[in-house]
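Hi Q.,

Before the meeting this afternoon, I wanted you to have the DQA prediction in hand. No need to reply - just skim if you have a minute. The sequence and ligand are here:
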Amino acid sequence: MHILVIHGPNLNLLGEREPEIYGDMTLEQLNLEITQYAWKKGIQVECFQSNHEGAIIDFIHENRKSADGIIINPGALTHYSYALHDALKSVDVPAVEVHLSDIHSREDFRSISVTAPACIAQISGKGKMGYLEAIATLVRHLEVF
Ligand code: DQA
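Predicted structure with the ligand bound:
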């Protein structure tokens, strides 16, 4: 099984960016934890981060034939990117949306996700555990379908 883990804008600064909200783990450490957890389950993950909407869309398109699932934290693109919504809908690959913080208990604009309707699930506010839970969600979904 091959899963794409996609991180959107500003997530490259994890560890130094608002640590009181996002924690002190760097993106590199987060990717390592996800990769190791997946590896134990025999799942191969490919991690990607970009601050650019188009680069994320290109990455989804390029990998649409080889990926079995997508885990995506779209960062702020969550709240307004219909282009990313359409990209997720355009490919026949199930996606789970993950947020480190609880987007439903922060500013009003964060509780709106335009990308979640293009995903099979949204996991929010569980920190790094959200990514591990997303792997389990994808595996369950892929076993059923
Ligand atoms: C985030 C929440 C978003 O509102 C924010 O723009 C981010 C990170 C999260 O992981 O909690 O960049 O997606």
